[in-house]
Amino acid sequence: MLTANSLLMISMPGGSEWILIILVVLLLFGGRKIPELMRGLGRGIREFNDAKNNVKDEIEQGMREKETTKTPSQP
Questions:
Q1: What does the longest C-alpha to C-alpha distance in the chain come to?
Q2: pLDDT digit string (tens) for 36-54?
Q3: At 11, is the pLDDT very low, low, confident or very high (cuts 50, 70, 90)?
Q4: Measured distance between the N- and C-terminal CA atoms of the chain, rounded to whole angstroms
Q5: What backbone torsions phi and psi does residue 5 show, to the nearest 5 degrees?
Q6: Cα torsion at 63, 64, 69, 71 (round to 10°)?
Q7: Rounded CA gap, 22 and 6, in Å?
Q8: DSSP assignment string, 10-60
Q9: Closest by alpha carbon to 38, among 29, 48, 50?
Q10: How many Cβ atoms are within 10 Å of 43's Cβ, its own excluded?
């Protein structure tokens, strides 16, 4: 049985491939643009995590409110 990895011949880059990728990024963006790019990436990740935590908190708060408003069932 063939897996997707063997079928598409795709795998994670090794050590030499990472060096090549870093060199290409340096050539494309230059040394001055990379810190700005990383800052923007960090802000995006932080905003995503904040939104994820807010949604989680709202769901948990809704569940707590539902439990407190639940009336005991009568026999």
A1: 75
A2: 888 999 999 999 999 999 9
A3: confident
A4: 58
A5: -65, -50
A6: 80
A7: 26
A8: -----HHHHHHHHHHHHHHHHHHHHHHHHHHHHHHHHHHHHHHHHHHHHHH
A9: 29
A10: 10
